[in-house]
Amino acid sequence: xxxxxxxxxxxxxxxxxxxxxxxxxxxxxxxxxxxxxxxxxxxxxxxxxxxxxxxxxxxxxxxxxxxxxxxxxxxxxxxxxxxxxxxxxxxxxxxxxxxxxxxxxxxxxxxxxxxxxxxxxxxxxxxxxxxxxxxxxxxxxxxxxxxxxxxxxxxxxxxxxxxxxxxxxxxxxxxxxxxxxxxxxxxxxxxxxxxxxxxxxxxxxxxxxxxxxxxxxxxxxxxxxxxxxxxxxxxxxxxxxxxxxxxxxxxxxxxxxxxxxxxxxxxxxxxxxxxxxxxxxxxxxxxxxxxxxxxxxxxxxxxxxxxxxxxxxxxxxxxxxxxxxxxxxxxxxxxxxxxxxxxxxxxxxxxxxxxxxxxxxxxxxxxxxxxxxxxxxxxxxxxxxxx
Length: 387
Known about the structure:
By secondary structure, the chain is mainly alpha-helical. It folds into two domains: 3-25 and 165-384, no CATH class; 58-152, 3-Layer(aba) Sandwich (D-Maltodextrin-Binding Protein, domain 2), CATH 3.40.190. The protein is built from 14 helices and four strands. The protein has helices at residues 3-19, 21-56, 69-78, 88-93, 117-144, 165-203, 206-210, 216-247, 255-262, 268-293, 299-320, 337-348, 353-379, 381-384, and strands spanning 59-62, 81-84, 99-104, 107-112. It has a four-stranded mixed β-sheet with strand order 2-1-3-4.
């Protein structure tokens, strides 16, 4: 293959993509606008929801104000205002009270609507107050018997997390980063792939390109590289706006969360590994979408062909970021899943070169298979010139 011809066709395709308003909106405008607006919206929503739940988490239903001293003390300690309701369940369901509390002998029951955050909040506060009150009563009883309170706690159990802050931060970010990046790669490359195949067929420019001195392999490779350029631009812009919006969102108001993300190593070496991990996946995505879209007679038909592909990659990308899954030589051979897993491992700083190379070359092989499939499609005259 001749590099000069590939670069000429690549330049042509990129210029055509940049002239397309729909491509620019999907590749540049939406990534730079959607995530910041989404971050601001989510932040405001979380803040307003928290205030609303706090305002509602002030009342607890009781059957009578003539309660036992323990119950009165627990309600007072939790800061709740008791409201008499004959039917506590109905009162909770109709949101007249956030939660309910009733006593039957030695048993105290907390009635809660588990679907309401305010109701759960009241129940947690009452449970904490009752637990503190219970300990106080036990200590008083032990003191009367001249038994030291230390018998209540013969030993202490302390849970120590040995994972570094970078590992924890990479774990938190890696669970969603792989899914987001892979999903963006396939969704961001969909429109360019359709435009360079079915779009050219609609514009009647495909015939002129096929009649040029460039071979079919050079044309296919140039179109795939143009798709990779488009989807890489989409991913980089989206991730950039994602990090900015995440830092300004309500999550970053949590000091622990902010500290964890702040300890993630995003040096040039880590960024290079992330981009290198996704390069064969991008080639595979571009080749596969070019091949599939080439069968379509129209832009709309090509989109209907590629939509199921987008749905197929969601599951392995999501499973790859789930906690409890670790990359192994066998799992490194599963496409999409392996890249999602490797992205998380790179962010955590815990990946082996064997798994990295296995994942990389496995995806290179899959990209080669998809390229061969796309080339076969372009060499099929019945497919390329059907109307």
